[in-house]
Amino acid sequence: MCEYCGCQQIATIAELTREHDAVVTLAGLVQRALPREPPQDVATSCGQILAILAPHTLVEEPGLFHEMAQEFPDHIEVLRSEHREIERVLGGASGGFPADPTWPARLGDVLSMLRDHILKEQDGVFPAALAALDSDQWERIEAVRAHLEVTPPALPKPALTSPALTATT
Ligand SMILES: [Fe+2]
Question: How many Å lie between the centroid of ligand 1 and the Cα of residue 120?
Fold first, then answer.
């Protein structure tokens, strides 16, 4: 977590970080719940993660990533492709817990990747953006958030909060 370079003083970065924190919390609940909790609660939590990531990604990709892509094209391309993979696997639960027996393992893998992805953004992209972007670029990124057509959800109460789960975590 980047706490020292000053990037948290930028409203866009602070908001993206709050969303990351909520996603990491939900991802941890899902990873711990996967072997034993009701499948529908796992599916609901996957939907909650996607609901946070939908507007979040719409700020990152056309906003922050767009401004950073010229200087760091390879890094940004990797992050974009990771977004697609995260959406694809989590979206597999959009109709309920998938019957595909390979999906839980793929979900576990993609949630681990999601945590690493968030660290790459927070420890890499955000501090680099603070150093690289000028005030006009930050204003363009803020405008992307201001004009979102997808309303960010209130950060959700996790579906996975059963006493049996929390007692062992
Ligand atoms: Fe992000």
Answer: 9
C-alpha of residue 77 to centroid of ligand 1, in Å = 14
Q: What pTM value is reported for the model?
A: 0.84
Return d(Cα 45, Cα 79) in angstroms, integer.
23
Element (DSSP H or E) covering residue 114? helix 103-120
For 169, counting Cβ atoms within 10 Å of its Cβ (0-12 exposed, 13-18 middle, 19+ buried), the class is exposed
Which domains does the chain show, CATH number per domain? 9-148 (1.20.120.520)
Any residues with CB less than 8 A from the CB of 133 and at least 6 apart, and which? 67, 68, 141
The amino acid present at 145, given as its one-letter code, is R
Q: Please name which of 36, 65, 71, 69 lies closest in space to residue 166, comparing C-alpha atoms.
A: 36
pLDDT in tens, 85-139: 999 999 999 999 999 999 999 999 999 999 999 999 999 999 999 999 999 999 9
- Please tell me the distance between residue 125's alpha carbon and the centre of ligand 1 in angstroms: 9
Start-to-end CA distance of the chain, whole Å, equals 22
